[in-house]
Design brief:
CATH topology of chain A: Rossmann fold
Helix content of chain B: 10-25%
Distance between the termini of chain B: 58 Å
Largest interface: A-B, 11 and 10 residues
CATH architecture of chain A: 3-Layer(aba) Sandwich
CATH class of the largest domain in chain B: Mainly Beta
InterPro entries (chain B): CAP/MinC_C (IPR016098), MinC (IPR013033), MinC_C_sf (IPR036145), MinC_N_1 (IPR055219), Septum_form_inhib_MinC_C (IPR005526)
Structural class of chain A: alpha/beta
Order of helices and strands of chain A: EHEHHHEEHEHEHEHHEHHH
Largest sheet of chain A: 8 strands, mixed
Number of domains of chain A: 1
Shape of chain A: globular
Domain Septum formation inhibitor MinC C-terminal (chain B): 106-206
Subunit structure (chain B): Interacts with MinD and FtsZ.
Structural class of chain B: alpha/beta
Radius of gyration of chain B: 25 Å
CATH architecture of the largest domain in chain B: 3 Solenoid
Strand content of chain A: 15-25%
Protein name (chain B): Probable septum site-determining protein MinC
Domain Septum site-determining protein MinC N-terminal (chain B): 7-84
Largest sheet of chain B: 6 strands, mixed
Strand content of chain B: 25-35%
Strand order of the largest sheet of chain A: 3-4-2-5-1-6-7-8
Oligomer: heterodimer
Number of domains of chain B: 2
Distance between the termini of chain A: 42 Å
Shape of chain B: elongated
Number of helices of chain B: 4
Chain lengths: 268, 226
């Protein structure tokens, strides 16, 4: 029996879809069977980020309305041997085409076959959000170090805490710009976590590579050399229950003293 | 044997009081009240209105009955009912009174979009985040940071206060007064535990918590002690 994790944020454009794609990829790299669900009906784009757009035959609404079986609608990611699947959203209907109860049954069915179901939630707190949260066991809230994103994250956390079947949500702070945070022009990680007072599950630095990779339909998590990729892989390991220390945000300073400290294992 | 009268009028230092018996039926009471007020002494027509108290003992009067009695007395002489005193109240009333006078303790973070509303005093163990609102019929005590909106005494109690460990509200409201936060909080200023109250100019002011013991002595409910 697998676990369903919803990725949500309230505000749009903070990186829910990117996070969903990369967490799914990173979990599949760990050898888990993963199914991604795009619940952003009418504005789907998880398939684009995953590079699976032209393989879609059926979608979420087709499944819910009984036009096809679940496994017919699932799009297999060829980069993984039977590990990563995507259930795409419909592009022609809207959010009201699905009811929370139907989503719940769908997720329950998928949980039999997969280790992790990752649900990409649309922005906002209306029908789409309610559908996305309906079947989830865990929740990940994505925010960026901006006041508006943090405010919406706060609202979403408040709503998630009211859901009885969902564990306390975990936080990802996305798009961190190290130099701005250092200068105090951006909210810093401690400030955000203290304000929202939920557990931090990972931080992801702002990285041009992420956008590049998304445009190529290849999640950044496939590229082992990027900082963002390592961040997503670390989050995946934390989801699996490993304890992985947070990435150091600062660029390595090359002073002799810090090298000596590093040699002795002193962390700055 | 002559029955004791159901309606008695007594003059005391503080004015006239009507004692209405609580064992007879309501109809009898109304009848006798009517008679008594009709036959009694003759008064000067253009005299001022006299306010009287009505004591009904262990009789429960509904709002309509209260209005009826007030009306009855008002129509007879130049008497006007100041208040009706009764020893009885309904369970709902009692519960409302109780809930308005007790302190509700809540351990929670009030997040953006959430509203917490209590009839009495509120003791919040946690923060109020920006966009969140706490409301109380009485005082609000926050053991955490107040960054959202707090509305104390929302039923009209202007004596209510708001206290918070970190006072950085977006708005403070007490009774019908509203005070907006400054656009910018001074950097690095860490004052601990402050309170807000309405001063004599009808303005909400924020002060050290220690100022309260002089300003609102009624906050102390302990009697005696050592």
């Amino acid at each position: 029996m697998g676990e369903a994790i919803v990725v949500t944020s309230g505000k749009g454009g903070v990186g829910k879809t990117t996070t969903t794609a990369n967490l799914g990829t990173a979990l599949a790299l760990q050898g888990k069977r993963v199914c991604l669900i795009d619940t952003d009906i009418g504005l789907r784009n998880l398939d684009v980020v995953m590079g699976l757009e032209n393989r879609i035959i059926y979608d979420l609404v087709d499944v819910v309305e009984g036009r096809c079986k679940i496994h017919q609608a699932l799009v297999k990611d060829k980069r993984f041997e039977d590990l990563l699947f995507l259930l795409p959203a419909a592009q022609t209907s809207d959010k009201s085409a699905v009811a929370p109860e139907q989503m719940k049954n769908l997720v329950m069915e998928l949980k039999q076959d997969y280790d992790y179901i990752i649900i990409d939630c649309p922005a906002g707190i209306e029908q789409g959000y309610k559908n996305a949260v309906a079947g989830a066991d865990r929740a990940i809230v994505v925010t960026t170090p901006e006041v508006s994103a943090v405010r919406d994250a706060d609202r979403i956390i408040g709503l998630l805490e009211k859901e009885k079947n969902i564990e306390p949500p975990k936080l990802i702070i996305n798009r961190i710009r190290t130099h701005m945070m250092k200068n105090g022009d951006m909210l810093d990680v401690d400030e955000i976590t203290a304000h929202l007072s939920i557990d931090l599950i990972g931080i992801v630095a702002d990285d041009d590579e992420v956008i590049k990779a998304s445009n190529h339909g290849e999640p950044i998590a496939l590229n082992p050399n990027s900082k963002a990729s390592i961040a997503y892989r670390n989050i995946a390991r934390r989801i699996l229950g490993e304890s992985v220390p947070l990435q150091q945000l600062e660029e390595e300073s090359k002073s002799v003293f810090s090298k000596i400290k590093k040699f002795f294992g002193v962390r700055s | 044997m002559k029955k004791l009268q159901n309606v008695m009028i007594k003059g005391t230092k503080s004015g006239l009081t009507l004692y209405l018996d609580d064992t007879c039926s309501y109809e009898d009471l109304k009848k006798e009240l009517n008679e008594k007020l009709s036959v009694a002494y003759r008064v000067n027509e253009d005299r001022q209105l006299i306010s009287v108290k009505v004591k009904v003992g262990n009789r429960y009067l509904t709002e309509e009955q209260k209005a009826e009695i007030k009306e009855l007395i008002r129509h007879k002489k130049n008497l006007v009912v100041e208040e009706i005193e009764t020893n009885v109240m309904t369970i709902e009333e009692a519960e409302r009174l109780k809930s308005e006078s007790e302190i509700v303790t809540i351990a929670k973070i009030i997040r953006s979009g959430q509203v917490l509303d209590v009839p009495g005093d509120l003791l919040l163990i946690g923060d109020v985040n920006p966009g969140g609102t706490v409301m109380a019929g009485g005082n609000i005590f926050i053991m955490g940071a107040l960054k959202g909106i707090a509305h104390a005494g929302y039923l009209g109690n202007k004596q209510a206060i708001i206290a918070a460990f970190v006072m950085k509200p977006s708005q403070l409201r007490i009774g019908d007064c509203i005070n907006r936060a400054p656009d910018q909080y001074p950097e690095g200023e860490t004052r601990e535990m402050e309170c807000a109250y309405i001063d004599e100019n009808n303005q909400i002011v924020v002060d050290r918590i220690q100022a309260l013991m002089h300003l609102r002595p009624e906050l102390t409910r302990l009697e005696g002690g050592r």
